[in-house]
């Protein structure tokens, strides 16, 4: 059956979107972590924290409420003064954060500490949220920008957490349905599990469609267009944004190219492999065909093949 905007707004508001009460709870937990870690960094190292920014889906209001399939991940970016930073400090930065986290939190308070390629992650037992502590070396010429270092490749990438938050806010301001669509697409991703496809990729693909086609009039139709774009383009089309229009276009040879709206020299999809690309396209094609069929059939259960068994549009 074809779904009205009100149907999908009900689904988003009652099933997908994180409640304001839970948001306040998570904010308090993250704020406490920030305060403690900032204090410990100052006391136990020569590093100077210039500022801290909550980032990612949590800060963009595109995060899903926690379920068995939908995790709560909060990114916290620590901007570090780069004046006295050397290679040794960079190599040990995540190790330092990891060691400080283990001092701050007793083992009974967390279920896991993990060092990843660009962050140290702590997962809290009671709330179940995971917090990624992302250290960046602040760019002195542009305080909102910072250099993020990959522990494995040793490559560095210029990032801007406030810019990404503003990018999503700008799209939401231009299209009141944008965040609803992002959450719907993320629910499909978490249900269908296309390998290599990240939440940020989804946000950017939907932003690209909005820039190209204008604000959403029909939520269901735009969602089907999102799936159709992936399936029909086979992710061979370069995705870029007006924010980069004044910059010199950089060539990328990666299988999938989605340009960072805050850094025209960064392809945020560079890690998607050819095999992952093929699987993403095939999974999107199947979902697109199912969504098109669901749109014309008088059977709400067909939509559950796209979003999972918790899909509903009324009490």
What report would you give on this structure?
By secondary structure, the protein is α+β, with helices and mostly antiparallel strands. It folds into 2 domains: 153 residues, Poly(a)-polymerase, middle domain (Orthogonal Bundle); 142 residues, 2-Layer Sandwich (Beta Polymerase, domain 2), CATH 3.30.460. The protein is 46% helix and 17% strand. It has 10 helices and 9 strands. Strands 1, 2, 3, 4, 5, 6 and 7 form a 7-stranded mixed sheet that branches. A two-stranded antiparallel sheet has the order 8-9. Helix 1 packs across helix 6. The relative contact order is 0.13. One of its GO terms (biological process) is defense response to virus. This is CBASS oligonucleotide cyclase. GO terms for molecular function: 2'-5'-oligoadenylate synthetase activity; double-stranded RNA binding.
Provide a brief overview of the structure:
The protein is of the alpha+beta class and 315 residues long. Helix content is 46%, strand content 17%.
Task: Give structural attributes.
315 residues, 10 helices, Beta Polymerase, domain 2, 2 domains, globular, Poly(a)-polymerase, middle domain, NT_2-5OAS_ClassI-CCAase, CBASS_cN_synthase, alpha+beta, two-stranded antiparallel ribbon
């Amino acid at each position: 059956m074809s779904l009205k905007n009100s149907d999908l707004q009900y689904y988003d508001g009652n099933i997908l979107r994180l409640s304001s009460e839970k948001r306040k709870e998570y904010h308090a937990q993250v704020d406490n972590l920030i305060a403690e870690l900032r204090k410990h960094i100052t006391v136990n190292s020569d590093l100077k924290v210039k500022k801290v920014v909550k980032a990612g889906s949590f800060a963009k209001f595109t995060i899903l409420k926690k379920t068995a399939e939908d995790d709560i991940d909060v990114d916290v970016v620590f901007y570090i003064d780069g004046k006295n930073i050397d290679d040794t400090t960079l190599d040990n930065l995540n190790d330092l954060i990891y060691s400080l986290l283990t001092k701050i939190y007793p083992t009974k308070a967390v279920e896991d500490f993990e060092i990843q390629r660009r962050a140290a992650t702590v997962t809290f037992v009671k709330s179940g949220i995971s917090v990624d502590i992302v250290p960046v070396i602040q760019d002195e010429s542009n305080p909102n920008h910072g250099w993020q270092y990959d522990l494995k490749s040793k490559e560095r990438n210029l990032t801007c957490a406030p810019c990404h938050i503003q990018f999503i806010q700008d799209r939401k301001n231009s299209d009141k349905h944008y965040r609803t669509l992002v959450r719907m697409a993320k629910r499909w991703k978490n249900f269908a599990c296309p390998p290599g496809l990240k939440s940020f990729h989804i946000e950017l693909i939907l932003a690209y469609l909005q820039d190209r086609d204008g604000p959403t009039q029909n939520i269901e139709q735009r969602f089907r267009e999102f799936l159709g774009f992936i399936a029909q383009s086979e992710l061979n089309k370069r995705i870029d944004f007006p924010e980069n229009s004044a910059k010199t276009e950089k060539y990328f040879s990666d299988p999938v190219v989605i340009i960072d709206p805050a850094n025209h020299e960064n392809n945020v999809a560079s890690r998607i492999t050819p095999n992952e690309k093929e699987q993403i396209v095939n999974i999107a094609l199947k979902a697109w065909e199912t969504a098109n069929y669901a749109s014309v059939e008088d059977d709400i259960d067909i939509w559950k093949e796209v979003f999972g068994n918790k899909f509903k549009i009324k009490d």
